[in-house]
Amino acid sequence: MTERRIVRGRVAGFSPWEDEFGYSRAVAAGDHVHVAGSTAWVDGRIEHEGDPYRQTLAAFGVGLQALAAYGLTADDVVRTRMYITHVRDAEEVGRAHRQLFAAARPVATMVVVEGLIDSRMMVEVELDAYRAGLAKTLEAPEGKQP
Q1: Distance between CA atoms of 8 and 27, rounded to whole angstroms?
Q2: Which of 83, 125, 127, 136 is spaced 20 to 30 A from 101 at the CA atom?
Q3: CB neighbours of 22 closer than 8 A, spacing ≥ 6?
Q4: Could you tell me which of 70, 59, 57, 80 has the C-alpha nearest to residue 14?
Q5: What is the band of 139 on the pLDDT scale with cuts at 50, 70, 90?
Q6: What is the pTM assigned to this prediction?
Q7: Residue 97, class by beta-carbon neighbours within 10 Å (0-12 exposed, 13-18 middle, 19+ buried)?
């Protein structure tokens, strides 16, 4: 399993593209946490090839794991974005979203795109979360980040 780390409020270590393209998986900004586009790329491979429902669950799982580094859960999610490669997958992707977020009911956007970075990927998701007072919990001495 790849090492997950928080440095200066940023979470990294989920995909090879983070270092290659220079981004973090998640970044805290005050009481908000923004999670970068996440796919079913888990432990160096694409999971559930050909299954949009299971790929969506896996992709949101990556995003939720990044939020967990800040002590946040699906209940703290306020916005989701889903990028799908074919309109026929909308219902299955939506079903996975409902399974994970029916209680939180974040605002959501689903967009059909021409493709993702790997043609086996059927969905990419983004998450934004909020928790009042989160910033205070991140104001720890250097090296003591959550």
Answers
A1: 9
A2: 136
A3: none
A4: 59
A5: low
A6: 0.87
A7: buried
Local confidence band at 20 (pLDDT 50, 70, 90 cut-offs): confident
Q: Are 126 and 81 in contact (CB under 8 A)?
A: yes
- pLDDT tens across 3-19, in order? 444 445 677 677 778 88
Residues 57, 44: Cα–Cα separation, whole Å? 17
Q: Which two tokens stand for residue 67?
A: 């939020």
* Phi, psi (rounded to 5 degrees) for 47: -90, 150
The alpha carbon dihedral of 66, 68, 71, 74 has a sign of positive
Tokens of 138: 């991140």
pLDDT at 120 over 60: yes
CA distances 86 to 46, 82, 111, Å, are: 18, 12, 9
Helices (H), the chain: 16-21, 52-68, 90-101, 134-138
Q: Could you tell me which of 39, 17, 2 has the C-alpha nearest to residue 119? A: 39
Distance of CA 29 to the CA centre of its chain: 16
CA-closest candidate to residue 28, choices 116, 129, 142, 110: 129
